[in-house]
Specification:
- It is a single chain.
- By secondary structure, the chain is of the alpha/beta class.
- The protein folds into 2 domains: 199 residues, 3-Layer(aba) Sandwich (Rossmann fold); 91 residues, Magnesium chelatase subunit I, C-Terminal domain (Helicase, Ruva Protein, domain 3).
- It is built from 13 helices and 13 strands.
- It has a 5-stranded parallel beta sheet. A two-stranded parallel sheet has the order 2-11. The chain has a two-stranded antiparallel ribbon with strand order 4-5.
- Strand 7 and strand 8 form a beta hairpin.
- Helix 11 crosses helix 12.
- The longest helix is centred in the C-terminal third of the chain and has 17 residues.
- The model has no long low-confidence stretch (mean pLDDT 88).
- Pfam families: AAA_3 (PF07726), AAA_lid_2 (PF17863).
- GO terms for molecular function: ATP binding; ATP hydrolysis activity.
- It comes from Rubrobacter marinus.
- InterPro entries: ATPase_AAA-3 (IPR011703), CbbQ/NirQ/NorQ/GpvN (IPR050764), ChlI/MoxR_AAA_lid (IPR041628), P-loop_NTPase (IPR027417).
Length: 308
């Protein structure tokens, strides 16, 4: 079984619903195959939830959706124990986090306390509730959506949680031709209802194992570390890319290489993914410099020499 084949099947299925956003679709699938998670940030109505549902519907796996709201509690995500008076015992009721594919919709509408309930699940693949640790299914993949921070009723995600996402990207408005196709498809039918699973959970798990074995030569590893170092030394940056961010970049690069049919990571894989795998991990100092996290990464890519 080839990772490229699985990637191609998933991409073909999802592109039938998500039109004109090929790069975003590819980033999500690379994260899925690399064992990471995805954060989609954009205004309402551009297809964030549709993309997440299309991914889950293309995999023969259980799917859970959590609609984050200000009154959502951590136990609403992880689960809780409920007393059964007939048997005089407490019974565990698993929360929606116990699903291979989880959509965390509008995650920044919940309070930081509730947002943090996803931290352990995303980082360790397990949940600890009432002193007991419970393993999550494998694969476990989170697609989180959030609205821009200036929107009413949003709580910015803490740095610790942002760092758990392998990539963070935006959907953006579709081009005119793509939007015509989207509107026409929605008027005439419901494309999401037509999606059928094209990949099994086992195939995704096997693909992840293959991705982990993709070779990373010392020069490419050094290139990724140098990029992270450049963000830390930038004068406009107060918090640069952590070692976790470098690891995420390399793992994503392994997945991209595998989807191209290669068994080794090239510097082009790192360079292509850095603009989506690094900026959300960077905090820029306030002031009149006008620098953004995206600009910092772009400068790092320009200044750090790429291996031949």
């Amino acid at each position: 079984m080839e990772v490229r084949e699985i990637f191609s099947r998933l991409r073909g299925s999802i592109r039938g619903v998500v039109v004109g956003k090929d790069r975003v679709v590819d980033l999500c699938l690379i994260s899925l195959l690399a064992g990471g998670h995805v954060l989609l940030t954009d205004i309402p109505g551009v297809g964030k939830t549709t993309l997440a549902r299309a991914i889950s519907s293309s995999i023969a796996a259980d799917f859970s959706r959590i609609q984050f709201t200000p009154d959502l509690l951590p136990s609403d995500i992880t689960g809780t124990s409920v007393y059964d008076p007939r048997e005089a015992v407490f019974k565990w009721l698993a929360g929606p986090v116990f699903a291979p594919v989880l959509l965390a919709d509008e995650i920044n509408r919940a309070t930081p306390r509730t947002q943090s309930a996803l931290l352990e699940a995303m980082a360790e693949g397990q949940v600890t509730v009432e002193g007991e640790t419970r393993e999550l299914p494998e694969p476990f993949f989170v697609v989180a959506t959030q609205n821009p921070h200036q929107f009413h009723g949003t709580y910015p995600l803490p740095e610790g949680q942002l760092d758990r996402f392998m990539v963070a990207t935006t959907m953006g408005y579709p081009e005119r031709r793509a939007e015509l196709g989207i509107v026409r498809a929605q008027v005439e039918r419901r494309p999401l209802d037509e999606i059928r699973p094209v990949v099994s959970v086992r195939e995704v798990a096997v693909a992840r194992e293959i991705v982990r074995k993709v070779q990373v030569h010392e020069e490419v590893l050094g290139y990724a570390v140098a990029l992270a170092g450049a963000t830390r030394n930038h004068p406009a940056v107060s918090l640069g890319v952590s070692p976790r961010g470098t690891i995420a970049l390399i793992r994503a690069a392994q997945a991209r290489a595998a989807t191209k049919g290669r068994d080794f990571v090239g510097p082009e894989d790192v360079k292509e993914l850095a603009p989506d795998a690094l900026p959300h991990r960077i905090s820029v100092r306030g002031g009149s410099s006008g620098a953004s996290a995206e600009a910092v990464v772009a400068e790092a890519l320009e200044s750090v020499p790429s291996p031949a």
